[in-house]
């Protein structure tokens, strides 16, 4: 695993669970509003651009930490970047699982085969999948738009097999409008849970110019309009 960060304690990242959070490096998307630009800029493989910094623990450090916190911390969130780009993700999760931890995985949905293995082996308790926009606009955030079929496949797989899950959208124009939200609703129709998050403006972003355009950011009323557009398709839609 190529690790870009580790948070020892979180009460908000894994619903109902006191968890640590591990951030993996590298992403196959280029969302301009991405709040983790350093992770996205790093590569997910051995040809990376050097270490994430001497303060960042490596995989062994994290496993040792988790081993000592058994019974105190309940779960581990694996996020990124895009965690499914890590070649040894399944082995890492298996090792943490064997220590008795619950696992939450955050993903952009481009690796349905990996999700399927995790579900079949009972290795995840909760999946949070980002829905970036509707099908027509997805290529705007993808390095490889040919992977769009995988995103669609992951949506059905998660609805069918994930023990618990949420779909979630960071809301910013032009990626979401009420019309786009209606299309998203059709994409994830019948999902158990959908969360809309307004995009924060005053943070580091992958594309710093994105933050300079006021129209990209949504008001409370805008967020309510998005929610209203998707509610006919996903009853449990909420704004976080
Ligand atoms: S927001 Fe998520 S999917 Fe998009 S570039 Fe950042 S880490 Fe990748």
Would you kindly provide a written description of the structure presented here, covering whatever features stand out?
The chain has 240 residues and is an alpha/beta fold. It has one domain: Alpha-Beta Barrel (TIM Barrel). The protein is built from 7 helices and 8 strands, in the order ββααβαβαβαβαβαβ. Strands 1-2-3-4-5-6-7-8 form an 8-stranded mixed beta sheet, covered by helices on one side. The chain is globular, with a radius of gyration of 17 Å. About 2% of the residues have low confidence. Bound molecules: iron/sulfur cluster. Iron/sulfur cluster (SF4) binds next to loops.
Number of helical segments with 4 or more residues = 7
Share of helix among residues? 25-40%
The CATH architecture can be named as Alpha-Beta Barrel
Determine the CATH superfamily. Answer: Aldolase class I
Bound molecules: iron/sulfur cluster
| Neighbour order of strands in the largest sheet | 1-2-3-4-5-6-7-8
Unreliable spans: 47-51
Write the layout of secondary structure elements.
Elements: E1 3-10, E2 19-24, H1 37-41, H2 59-68, E3 75-79, H3 89-98, E4 102-107, H4 112-120, E5 126-130, H5 148-161, E6 165-171, H6 178-187, E7 194-198, H7 220-230, E8 237-239
Parallel strand pairs: 2-3, 3-4, 4-5, 5-6, 6-7, 7-8
Antiparallel strand pairs: 1-2
The protein binds iron/sulfur cluster (SF4).
InterPro entries: Aldolase_TIM (IPR013785), NrdG2 (IPR012840), Organic_radical-activating (IPR034457), rSAM (IPR007197), rSAM_sf (IPR058240)
Keywords: 4Fe-4S, Iron, Iron-sulfur, Metal-binding, S-adenosyl-L-methionine
Pfam families: Radical_SAM
């Amino acid at each position: 695993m190529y690790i870009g960060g580790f948070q020892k304690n979180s009460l908000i990242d894994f619903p109902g669970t006191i968890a640590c959070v591990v951030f993996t490096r590298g992403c196959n998307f280029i969302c301009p509003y991405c709040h983790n630009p350093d992770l996205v800029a790093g590569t997910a493989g051995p040809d990376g651009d050097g270490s994430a910094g001497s303060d960042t623990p490596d995989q062994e450090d994290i496993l040792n930490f988790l081993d000592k916190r058994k019974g105190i911390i309940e779960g581990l969130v694996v996020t990124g970047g895009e965690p499914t780009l890590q070649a040894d993700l399944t082995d890492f999760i298996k090792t943490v699982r064997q220590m008795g931890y619950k696992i939450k995985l955050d993903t952009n949905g481009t690796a349905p085969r990996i999700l399927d293995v995790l579900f079949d082996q009972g290795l995840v308790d909760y999946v949070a999948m980002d829905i970036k926009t509707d099908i027509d606009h997805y290529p705007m955030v993808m390095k490889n738009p040919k992977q769009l079929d995988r995103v669609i496949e992951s949506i059905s797989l998660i609805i069918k097999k994930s023990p618990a899950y949420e779909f979630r959208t960071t809301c910013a124009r032009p990626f979401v409008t009420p019309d786009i939200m209606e299309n998203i609703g059709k994409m994830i129709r019948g999902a158990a849970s959908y969360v809309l998050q307004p995009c924060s403006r005053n943070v580091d972003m992958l594309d710093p110019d994105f933050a300079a355009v006021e129209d990209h950011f949504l008001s409370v009323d805008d967020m309510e309009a998005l929610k209203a557009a998707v509610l006919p398709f996903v009853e449990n839609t909420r704004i976080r």
